[in-house]
Amino acid sequence: MKVLVPVKRVVDFNVKVRVKSDGSGVDIANVKMSMNPFDEIAVEEAVRLKEAGKVTEVVAVSCGVTQCQETLRTAMAIGADRGILVDTDADLQPLAVAKLLKALADKEQPQLIILGKQAIDDDCNQTGQMLAALLGWPQATFASKVVLEDGEASVTREVDGGLETVALTLPAVVTTDLRLNEPRYVTLPNIMKAKKKQLDTVKPADLGVDVAPRLKTLKVAEPPKRSAGIKVPDVATLVSKLKTEAKVI
Amino acid sequence: MTALVIAEHDNAHLKGSTLNTITAAAKCGGDVHVLIAGHNCGRAAEAASQIAGVAKVLVADAAHFADGLAENVAEQALALASGYSHILAPATAYGKNILPRVAAKLDVAQISEITKVDSPDTFERPIYAGNAIATVQSTDAVKVITVRTTGFDAAATGGSAAIENVTAVADSGKSSFVSRELAKSDRPELTAAKVIVSGGRGMGSGENFKILEPLADKLGAAMGASRAAVDAGFVPNDWQVGQTGKIVAPQLYIAVGISGAIQHLAGMKDSKTIVAINKDPEAPIFSVADYGIVGDLFEIVPQLVAELG
Lengths: 249, 309
Known about the structure:
The complex is a heterodimer of chains A (249) and B (309).
Chain A lengths: L1 E5 L2 E3 L6 E2 L6 E2 L5 E3 L1 H15 L5 E8 L3 H11 L3 E6 L6 H15 L3 E5 L10 H9 L3 E11 L2 E8 L2 E8 L2 E5 L11 H8 L3 E4 L12 E7 L8 E2 L3 H10 L5
Parallel strand pairs in A: 1-6, 1-8, 6-7, 7-13, 8-12, 9-12
Antiparallel strand pairs in A: 2-5, 3-4, 9-10, 10-11
Chain B lengths: L1 E5 L9 H12 L3 E8 L3 H8 L4 E8 L8 H11 L5 E5 L2 H14 L3 E5 L1 E4 L2 E6 L4 E7 L4 E5 L14 E4 L9 E8 L12 E5 L13 H7 L2 E4 L1 H5 L20 E5 L5 H7 L4 E6 L12 E4 L2 H12 L1
Parallel strand pairs in B: 1-2, 1-4, 2-3, 3-10, 4-9, 5-9, 12-13, 12-14, 14-15, 15-16
Antiparallel strand pairs in B: 6-7, 7-8
Helix pairs in contact in B: 3-4
């Protein structure tokens, strides 16, 4: 059984982005880029399923600029068997990515697609669900546990207020939450091995997908600043401030 | 122009998130209809009909809607979609699960987690963990939107909308509900609480979270946690406040032993008043706190409980 794992190249989670002064976007020139953390968890899960003998091949996919090859190499260093880059400079929005992934899924015929629940740049939380809908497949979002058995996936999901378990017929889409696993550190030998793995490149036009954006970003602004308040010397002062100044207790 | 709100409910009650979503829907400029897809959900439908500003409640009642499976609820929304200019759901685990399926099948973009409606086609939404606010305009015929509940007031009661039964779509047959483990608590729900007492890595252990309980009891507060505390296994995952956890904006947020990582601040910086208790005077949490106390939380928290009387 084959698993497809889409991975996104994003600004590293440790970077605090700055809004450009002309309000056209955030400044991502010369900042560190990494694999979206939720996608890293997705790759790890797919590789663990392979190591457990449930899966035979793990294929990583990334959509975006040529540098996404590095993200794919990271996925292959974790243990993905090969990579596919959908190479484009276009501003890709979730619907376009879902369509590209659907086209690849039609070609590759995976039984399972695992991807991150959201990317930490646009914070959209859409692509997995959109992909499932376009494929007509069931989905389990925000997964904290995935069990594959008898052509079914039993997935525990993190929902508001606790956990929920659903059973899906395969093929299916799973999106990862933080507690699904802890991705391994990639070792130097595995980084070297990943360089030799197969990496194919296709263009959106090869897949017959129109990736034109549907949302126009009119402006990007700094959020209203919250100014630092004061440090109070003791608990009595704090309580009196909360009562008389902030009037919240 | 009419907006359809996909209601989050438990068949008997509407979730608070639905009320904020109705307010956002009303700001889109037209009538507001509410879809209750559930099973034996008459009481939830009744509750929706009493919300001010709701013109009509559509009820799809079938066993396969009982647990809110995304495949089924999305199909139901799609069956009703023609004629609506806007389709909205709360940006909660429930709404986020369902709505992108609706958008994809309609071949339109989804606008996620809006915090403001500028006009019927232009919305504001936070990106990069709330470090930037994007104003986006949709070029699609139908606007499919999830609503960040802290961005909009809850709609009030006082309406009397018509309730109409609609034909339920068939079960997809591809997914089924197995079980649910919901944390039982007498405390208010995190996203609806007026006061939140939250603990971080500085708590040191799950056991130590007990010292926050008397404080939460005194204030009638919900209890939350930072991602670090959840990842360390101190407390359950549904306590997590932050970019990828719950987004909250209570009247009073007390951060105890929380350093204030970007992704945590993204989840609570819209709180009215923030109090930080941390032993590190340089902790970033103090840059957003209205009132900070530098010191050992294990001394300060009990003092605070005593002082509150």
